[in-house]
Amino acid sequence: MPTSSWDHCLSDAGRAVLARGRRAESGDVGKRPALLIIDAQNYMAGVHGGEQAAYPVSCGEIGRQAIDEIARLLEVARRCCAPIVFTRLMIDPAIADDGGVLTRKIITKVGEYMFFTWTHGSEIVALPTSVCGEPVVENRRFSAFFDTPLLSL
What's the rounded Cα separation, in Å, for the pair 1 and 14? Predict the structure, then answer.
């Protein structure tokens, strides 16, 4: 079984489970891999003017660095004509329980710099190239896969 950066966290029993299930083996990317960009939004990256304080849940500088790496990935994927799908977290605070527990916890922080519907924070970060024609899946929980059309795409 190959080692990874988290291998030191596993017990011998945990390693045995992974080995039996072949879960830690490298997988083939298939014949037509796709690029999935999950929640590369202003609220997460805090890219508007660089003021992290304005974005209460921003990743700060690491988020901004991640956007640069995403731009590089997008360039390669588009050059290879790989399918690209974006997701974005968009919660409507006017709809009771739209975001579940998440909304109840942070509803007091409704503002332009969060992920609420049609705010600056909910918009996908402006990347150097266009995303015209590439699907954007909107999710209402911290999962791009739960109750969204992502699997059918």
Answer: 12
pTM assigned to the model:
0.70
The CATH number linked to 77 is: 3.40.50.850
Closest CA to 34 of 137, 127, 121: 137
Query: How far, in whole angstroms, is CA 27 from its chain's centroid?
Result: 21
pLDDT given at position 68: 87
pLDDT digits (tens, 9 = 90+) for 52-73: 557 777 887 888 888 889 999 9
| Structural domain of 92 | 35-139
- Asked whether the beta carbons of 87 and 153 are under 8 A apart, the reply is no
The tokens for 153 are 């795409």
